[in-house]
Design a protein that fits this description.
0% strand; 64% helix; mainly alpha; 383 residues; 22 helices
């Protein structure tokens, strides 16, 4: 082996060791958030997200740690580290910091800050600087969305959001259409950009917009004609998204959308299982006609979303259905509220709820479980 080759290998090994050491050091830096809240990720509007709810409960106290996470820097940000990583065998490359992981972490932090709403007002100067200096268009878009969530009454923040949705590139329009449903809206006029997105030239944007439209209920009634057209669209989740939106606007639309949803589930169309839980939550007992279908799904795949849907659509859930819902491995806050609303009928799951109230690491789940137990036991007592 020549001297030059040995020197080259030595330098390469040195770079790898430095990257490992500093990358490990970065990994160990404290987030200053409680450990069980340190790993957060974005979810679609309408989905339960326990960690998001916990951070919301912390209010403005969560902001300093999130801003620190956003501003943190790692060796993953150094271009030559990534170039070295790309040239190494995968077994070696895994020891160096991965830029994609750190970029996704920042993207998720921007999302969480936006979800804090007005509690994140102290973060606005940091977010504006980050937006103006962002080199990734996804990060710039996420920052514009976050600023609109935090200050929905600010005309400039809302204008920036609308401009991205109407005039941005495909990626920008995709993300804004996905997130618009989480932006506070007061009037139908505020929804105009989102309703326009239902006819976007890109079908991904159209499909994402249906999910956001669903979050505004009757306020989105002007979208009904376009949503009805999308029911027969053959692109990915556009039909089931449109069905969900229509059911959210009014339960009078459930009869015409129910067949769309059940057919999509039977055919295992893309995103059907993902949107179905949201749809049946919106439809409620108006979808009672689907009870035999959902019961069969629940029997075939216990422990899934169908267990929840059976209780949601049934005017009088059976004890078996209630027990199945109570036995779900990860009860969501809305599941706990649903069980509480059943009153004495949910007595068989009280012990499970009491365990959650006493042992869950999440304060929001503990509080929801306590409330549910109180409601169930209050209605279980004789008058």
């Amino acid at each position: 082996m020549s001297r030059a080759v040995r020197w080259g290998l030595t330098l390469l090994l040195g770079a790898v060791l430095v990257g490992i050491a500093l990358g490990w050091r970065n990994y160990l830096l404290p987030t200053r958030l409680p450990p069980h809240l340190a790993h957060y990720s974005a979810t679609w509007p309408g989905e339960n997200n326990v960690i998001r709810d916990e951070l919301r409960a912390l209010g403005s106290n969560a902001v300093p740690a999130l801003v620190a996470n956003l501003n943190s820097r790692s060796w993953a940000d150094v271009p030559w580290i990534q170039r070295v990583r790309d040239k190494l065998p995968s077994s070696w490359a895994d020891f160096l910091p991965n830029d994609n992981a750190f970029q996704w972490r920042r993207q998720s932090t921007l999302w969480v800050l936006g979800e804090l709403g007005s509690n994140a007002l102290p973060a606005i100067p940091t977010l504006e600087l980050y937006r103006d200096g962002a080199t990734h268009h996804e990060h710039r878009t996420a920052t514009v969305i976050a600023l609109a969530k935090i200050q929905p009454n600010d005309s400039q923040a809302r204008s920036n959001l609308a401009d991205l949705l109407l005039n941005g590139g495909q990626g920008e329009r995709f993300w804004v259409a996905w997130e618009f449903g989480a932006v506070p809206v007061r009037t139908s006029e505020d929804l105009a950009p989102l309703l326009s997105a239902l006819s976007d030239t890109d079908q991904e944007v159209q499909a994402n917009a249906t999910i956001s439209v669903a979050r505004f209920g009757p306020l989105a009634a002007p979208a009904v004609p376009r949503l009805r057209q999308l029911l027969t669209n053959d692109y990915k989740h556009a039909p089931v998204g449109a069905a969900y939106a229509l059911a959210s606007i009014g339960r009078d639309y459930v009869p015409e959308t129910l067949v769309v949803m059940t057919n999509a589930i039977v055919k295992q169309l893309q995103f059907a299982d993902y949107i179905a839980p949201l749809y049946f939550k919106a439809a409620g007992t108006s979808a009672a006609r689907a009870l035999p279908f959902l019961t069969t799904l629940s029997e075939r795949n216990p422990g899934g979303w169908a267990d929840r849907a059976v209780v949601l659509v049934s005017p009088h859930p059976t004890e078996k259905a209630i027990r199945r819902l109570g036995d779900l491995v990860e009860l969501e806050p809305s599941d706990i509220e649903l069980l509480g609303s059943l009153g004495a009928a949910a007595q068989p799951v009280v012990r499970r709820l009491q365990r959650i109230a006493e042992q869950s690491p999440y304060a929001t789940l503990r509080a929801a479980a306590r409330r549910a137990v109180e409601r169930i036991q209050a209605k279980s007592k004789p008058e």
